[in-house]
Amino acid sequence: MAAAPVLELAGVDAGYGVFHALFGLDLRVEPGEAVALVGTNGAGKTTVARVASGLLTPTAGTVSVDGVDLTGRPAQDFARAGVVHAPEGRSVFASLSVEENLLLPFRRQFGRAGVADALARAYELFPRVGERRNQLAGTLSGGEQRMLTLARALVLEPRLLIADELSLGLAPVITAEVYDVLARVRDAGTALLVVEQHVDHALALASRVVVCAHGQVVAGGATDEVDLSTVFATAGMPDDGGEAIR
Amino acid sequence: MTAAAAVQPVLAAGAVGDFFEYAVRGIPFGCVYALLAVGLVLNYKTSGVFNLAFAAQAYASAAVFYVVRKEHEWALVPAALLSIVVVGAALGFLLDYALYRHQRTASPLAKLVTSLGLLVAMPEMVKLALGPGVKANPPPLWTVRRTDDFLWRVGGSRFVLDAGQIATVLATVFVVIGLTLLFRRTALGLQMRAVVESPRLLRLQGVDTDRVAVVSWILSSMLAALVGVLLAPLFAQLTSLDFFTLLVAAIAACVVGNLTSISGAFLGGLALGILQAELAGFLPTDSVVANGLRPSLPFVVLFALLLIRQSVRSARTVTDPLAGVDPPPDPPPADIRPAWMTTATRAFAVVVIVAGFALCAWVFDDYWVGLIAAGVCLAVVMLSIVLTTGVGGTISLCQCTFAAIGALATAQLTQHDVPVLVAMVGGAAVAAAVGAVLGFPVIRLPGIYAALATLAFALFFEGVLINLSWVSGGDTPLRVPRPTVLGTSFLADRPFLVLAAAVFAVAGVAVIALREGTTGRFLDAVRTSDTAASSVGINPARTRLVVFVLGAGLAGLGGGLVASFSGQANYSQSFTFFIGLVWLVLVITAGSRSVQAAIISGISFFVFPALLDRLFTWPVNFVDTNPGAPPWLLDIMGFFKPEWAQGVAFVLFGLGALTYAKHPEGIIAAQTSASIRRTVRFVERRRPAATSPSNGLDLEAPA
Amino acid sequence: MTALLEAVGITKVYDGMAALTDVSIEVDTAELVALIGPNGAGKTTLFDCLSGVQRADAGIVRLEGREIEGLAPHERARMGIARTFQRIELFTGMTVRDHLLVADRAVRRSGGLLRDLTGRAKPDAGERERCDEVLELVGLADDADRPAHALSLGRGRVVELARALMCRPRLLFLDEPSSGLDRTETAEMAGVLERVMEQGATAILLCEHDVPFVERLASRTYVLDCGRRIAAGPTRDVLADPDVRAAYLGQGV
To answer: Which residues of C touch A128 (CB under 8 A)?
Structure first.
């Protein structure tokens, strides 16, 4: 029997109050697979990430993790089941130190060698974060905060890591650094769902691309097989590798 | 027993020895401040609630302890366990489960309003449940055989520390060490600190935030219970107001620790107690300075700390990085109302006003007209809350004080034969001037600190200034006549009602003009962010100050009206800060930006308790006049007591504030929106061709 | 002739850590200058010092030769320095037109209590005309009467820009105007900025991470790293500089 998908969204409707963002969206992520979720602003990408991690409860449809229906359960159940979300923006606990940010998920800090190992692994992946372990997270630069957000997600040893708009507001050199880490995480066998505005990095990382438009999945396929220009045209995205700017 | 009374008269010794001796004497009382401050910090740090209702929680447990220990004569240990562990924990659980769980991501203002509502409602609920009788001489938690059991020899003088003081010191040390260890050394403590910043982010880390929050509420509530039972013997009789005054005095200690540091609060409390003892010892006992400064010290210190501490001014509210998950707020009623309905609403308003006057002129008897007239006078003060807090965005807890200043100034002016109406304007000007002096530093403080500074001012006024004869005009309240203008007499209630309504109407129109005009837009901009507003050339401080001063003036005008109507400027009857809190809670519940809310809450403040009084008197009259009724009916009727009325009114006023979390726009706006939607749906069903109004939202909204 | 904006030796220290060390920049009338650098290089701090939100610990800021150090942000705004924000800061509960009107009245100091109380709060002909002009320029005319918070992020950033333009700025600071925008929206933003530059009334200092965006718009570029200016010059030359490539672009580009 094939393993159940690590994450499955089936017929999901979701929104914020009277505002509807997703309309019957379907999405599967297989274990160990890296998926890039792309689309224009307002297509509902971030909402997909929020529904997938339990932050937002869908108004219709189901969300399953490893074949277990977790629809309507609080976000901590998703995290414990191995679906961990690194949200967009500066998602750190600003008044806690860097190390305290990383220690949060642990019930007992003492007598557990696992904690020290997890911290060491996080600092190995993000040496800059390690250098600032005693600094308040709120005083970090935007790039360091983003790294801390990722590090905090990774200490949970997720089976699926959802990374939302990683490159937002980051300098090119730091974006590259962050994506290098993601590649290592992928190679270690963690499934990835990467929500990204700047598609080049995401496509280089992912084995499969899913294109979102108007709250639905409109196209998708293996990154080395699908015709990207057709796919992007379907989603109303310019396919010019940044040419629109120049 | 007050702080000053806690300190024995001066002993003759060298100045250095005295200094040391006074310091030691100040420690027990410093621990009292420290305990309360630590409780507030614990609450604020773990839930973001600046829990002024901490005093009410302490009172509730102290009252339970009093009743079981004194009236039912329980043994000490079961009584203490029941009131501290059981009642404390249950209250904490209930507060989280029923209230704060649903406000976890609400603004600090919403949480403050909820705690104010509880502060108003809870003591009355306790009185209704445990009986209204005076609870004199609260029993101590720790009994001793003789008061001089504990002697302490330092530098040749003998100190008598009574058992209560020793218990306080020990409890403080225990609590401070325990909480410091909890926050520094345990994962739960770490999660408690994190949950207040963003519960959603913490859930993404696999932490059950509901469990963390309920534990912290139970913990803080048990601390409140301990504080209540421990400190109750300080007072000659048990009242929630004494606890609250003491709590506000302890706020200065919280500010030392930036509201979040346990050790800061502890040291601040200790320093405050010692400073007070030093002042008591070194200042000549009968000087004006000593009599004024001693009781007011905590408020002076609080005010000074707020003004000079850089960390206070640069404090930024931590925003939830995941706030975007919340649905957008409902648009205001005006945005969803079709044009034809606006006309209909205005016509309806005219009908209501005309009908109101007609009822007062011909239907209601003098009793009710008097209450309504008092309510309309008060509504002018309520309008100042709308202007300052709703439109201006400054949480002011001292509008009652401005009203008092207006009333007292009006009274003083009329003593010098100034015509009453002119005196009222003069009173408003005096209040506005005081508002300018107070507002200049206060409006520069970030939200919660501004609220605390105004609270400190209100208590400073109540504790110190009102006792000065040049402020209050002496022990008997000054008389204020009702006006007579150009031969028109406003001596009777009905003409006065017309006068008050006219004043309210003019002020109301002005408030609407400001709210809807450029001033209102500038204030909206400033409320969004000072930085953004100043980037387009708005001076945030000036904009806020102008509205704060106008609000103070308006409150002063209202105070003059109230005084003139009641015939005297009676501070303790009309303008105490606790009454002011009830006013604020009422207005914010009804709608902090709404002129209708001001008039409705003004009138209900007087009419609602009177209606309840009728309601609760009716069964008693029924029992008296129908002795032959069936016994079960008499039993039911006999259950109700007329003296419940005022208590029940305050409970309902206070609990009303709990709706604020769900409807920050106020009950009136929420109901208006709901009825507009209903009407529009109804009309659309009957007229399918009618164009549907825009709902103010759009599918392009960012996710 | 003196430069429009001249900042000399700006230094800012937080808790003993130097955020800016001796940074000097110049912006000439009606030119678009970019400011790039890795996160934490001090770009936003420099913006805050220039616009008056923070006070520099050392250094001089001059606008047209006049020293403006010590002036509050709103005073600088009235002198013709406007800005937008990295994390969008729109006023709550206002329509797009309200945003523009507020800026217009604040800068001209033509709103106030008296005007509200005498019932003249409605915009007059001149105000409407100035609003319409800017709305037309940035392409927001169709959205003028919609609540700004209901617009997409891309349109929201344009509203912020329009609000800043209502201050008739001689100098405009744009803090990452393309951040969070998708490619279509970024291209639109670039187009709007080009139209603003064509008018020739405004100089722009642009802080940005999107290199193609900078290449398209900026004639000159400054590079900050670790609070120091590490390069300055024509954009093309700066981006080709090996030090800049190492510090900012990384090996990926």
So the answer is: none
